[in-house]
Amino acid sequence: MKTLSGIAISRGFVSGPVIIVSDEVGSVQLERSVAPEKVLEEIARFHSARRATRRQLEDLIEDLRLRVDASSLDIFKNHLVMVDDPTLIREVESYISNEFLSAETSLKRVCAKFRDAFEKMDDPYLRERIRDIEDVERRLMKQLVGDETPPVVFEKPSIIIADELTPSDTVSIPREMILGFAMNKGSSTSHVSLLARSLDIPAVVGLGDIVSQVKPGDIVLLDGTHGCVTVNPDEETIEGFERLSRRERELKEILADDESRTGSMKDGTIIHISANVQPGVPLECLKTFGAHGIGLYRSEFLWLSREDEPSEELQFEYYSAAAKAVAAMGNGARVTFRVLDLGGDKLQRGAVMNEANPFLGNRSIRYLLSHRDVFKRQLRAILRASAFGPSAIMYPMVSTLQELREANFELRAIKSELRTEGISFDENIPVGVMIEVPAAAICARQFAREADFLSIGTNDLIQYTMAVDRGNASVAGLYQPTHPAVISLMQQTISAANEEGISVCVCGETASDPILGVLWVGMGVNELSMSASFIPILKKTLRELSLSDARELAAAVNNMGGEKTAAAIYSYCRDYILKKVPQLEEIQSFFTSV
Amino acid sequence: MSDNKHVREIKLLNRYGLHVRPAGLFAKIASRYDAEIEVEKDGIVVSGKSIMALMTLEAVSGTILKVTATGVQAVEALDDLEALVARKFDIPDEQ
Q1: Is some CB atom of chain B closer than 8 A to the CB atom of A112?
Q2: What ipTM does the predicted assembly reach?
Q3: What is the DSSP string of B20-50?
């Protein structure tokens, strides 16, 4: 028995037989030369291998589009760029025509030069990127050699052992044959890690020397939650591991044990727990994690992933897919489309950043109101999508009533345009305002009178209230969700919505922390929206509490006034909730690491 | 107009520097222009249209790249590339 520890990159417990995947590139005949009169033919052979590789990558991207997230997909899109890289092409051609080397040998030489350059790097993150070049090299090589030797045959679900898998290897192994990944190299930022998490496969990397520690037939225990791997474990270790694994399964079942998609509290109070979703994310995740609907649809990602404005048609395609998905869920689920939430400097290609302070600049609704054509196209796409499922619109970064009215003016204009064209849409689509600017929170009542719902974006509200950029490590400590000023602004907003009889949602990251989620519910919030994977824990926590518990907590916090520090308020909330939901601590230890 | 040569110093601001994604975007945009584009760091000069060569520069966050563009669209290319870098390559996690 031997236990190795590495970096936990994708959680979960699995045990099973190993399969060792070597990253050797077939049996390439090294140093093969070509006759001078065959040089052009050899160059043509290299280009046809490039074309075949390009097709292969295009197919792969198409195939993965719905299975992985956008950043994972980008890995392969960049491999596509590499296949056409001018330096690669020029150097390979030069080896072939000047030194009369075969395409394979030339490719090897060129990639070896790249490898040398990367090995000298000090920055670990950048040094690791050689894997992408090697991945492309391998694809090209396989095309050149003809790929006669089929790689490893996967007969039964196994734990994949490798020095380091390339992204291509990772997605080429049939998902049902993979129990987990254990690798010598890698870090939490390597592409394989990203893919493993995206595909929900337990994985440990950076194990040093797992490859030489195992042989075919060995049994391995892999703990992706804590980052260790045990080879040929003894009885006692297996028992301990199985206890953990069983406990994880039990907790998972407890979390999943949820008859209705609504989040109900002990006393029957319903709190809608919805998901924050970006375009392109597989919408099955809504069902998997028991989301009520989509509380925040981040439309800006359609802009971020391309250089030009997405067309109305493309937007419609994405929006209507989301609308159809929530329609299929029923139960009153809806999708809330947040219109473009980005700064002007981030949008216009060719426009150099000319704002001294972009966070206080022409962003979000301000940008849209100064670029009405962009706004109108987006509203058209959203309205058209609303014919396919329950939808809502919300405006981000609003600070004045004037902005809300002007945005609604455009919305009315687009509605009548669509009516004239005979295009159907939801005439009564609800329109909400995001409360992210202190000015809007203070005047929440006025907004509540003119909007159909309010949604509090806590990330920005905290940032603007505390005047702190949490990405700046030297001041990040001031980013305090439970600062009395933040709590007071939230309470004003929530009470205004409650009193005006409209719903109010919290859709910032704070909603995903069950401690804060309960506090917001106690303060009067009707809906919480967060990354889908956090939903089960929050639902479980709410099931163990009644609304009066949450209200009691909120009342206690409100009564603290400004005397307590943010940390003291937080730990008060935590103690209060853990006393009533003791299991939460264990659940968090299993499911919130990594 | 082969003399239309422009040089600009551009500072990398995104979190992880010139790794695969940023280098890919840089090369893709550079390739659109009718101009030769060279990127220099510490005396090493590579083609701005080559994702692989750009990656070998080991340009971490904060590095100042000297970008030289020669050709008809030199200025447009530099404007576009400078904006791309200033936007931190539009990568949400690296803002």
Answers
A1: no
A2: 0.88
A3: HHHHHHHHHHHTTSSSEEEEEETTEEEETT-
